[in-house]
């Protein structure tokens, strides 16, 4: 229990806001993108400087509290009860250095902030499918890009400098020579509060990309064709496919309002004519309800997946798949096809490979190299719908288990996954997990940073 005197003392040390439950501004700082995973911290510190973060961490240590960080708010495995929640939005900045092709971000900007800052520079970051995702959380989890991933690897491969506050309240500068450099890139916030990151940008200004929306009733024909075609693509091309039951929203194009569709996503970094030739086998499947594929500025990459832009209540699960055999695809069709009772809004497969399989120049804790496919699904609904959605997601995981790979994309772990030591150790692999555990015990021996997919002895 935090005393009033303790809070008064903390406010005297912090230039940003210190907020208790019920006070104006508390709920804004404690928001989550997933409305089914609310945060309930004992205290919120809206930090405006690294010194504020240091004061908040020391306050947590003095009061035997945990520390949680809210970035983009997409993945919050723990409600942060009895914790100090640190938010960094008041610190947000993005600085681009075109000469060195480097971005420096402070605080927790979203990817769209970086995309806007790089627009017009001819440079691009290795970013994800959703521009609303926080940059730091993405990079700490590895970060798979649906555009540059297969040609450039994970986002964390290109991090060059991290500034962070560790459990002792000290500000650390972490570069390749530091033992934390390995562990931070993949450990998803288990080791401290990151206040700034620098990473490399790449000379890409536009791409050939978008999506084909085909009738969902043709899923049994489309899915094997997509699998066979995806295996032929060069590393400059990326693709995923999503089986979607879209809501009847007026802001969707009329053909998609309330529609059951197969959404083939595609991107190519190179000549538009070559990109069109690569996509031709999918276009040859027949007329699309909508075809959005064309030349686009890199800053608009979020349009390829068209992930929800505003917070929604959802349940999600993920699993890595080592192969897509005919039997695997038949199982997917049974789970999400036109004759199923599927309540999920989206069931997605991402084809990986290419540079995502290659080790980075500096070793890291990203454990999904060599994974062939990532399966991810979510259902939208309020608390009354959650039990049914979770049950269906669990059924999907159970039926796909014969083709499962223990590896999976760390940034796709849901609050319902990776909750035990054994499960998380299997995802990382025992060798990487034990190495992370050694670093965790050295820099956070009291497990202060535990409101996450927690690395435990």
TrEMBL record:
Keywords: FAD, Flavoprotein, Oxidoreductase. This is FAD-binding protein. Gene3D superfamilies: 3.30.465.10, 3.40.462.20, Uridine Diphospho-n-acetylenolpyruvylglucosamine Reductase, domain 2 (3.30.43.10). The keyword Oxidoreductase applies. Residues 37-204 form the FAD-binding PCMH-type domain. Belongs to the oxygen-dependent FAD-linked oxidoreductase family. Its cofactor is FAD. The keyword Oxidoreductase applies. The lineage of its organism: Bacteria, Bacillati, Actinomycetota, Actinomycetes, Kineosporiales. One of its GO terms (molecular function) is oxidoreductase activity.
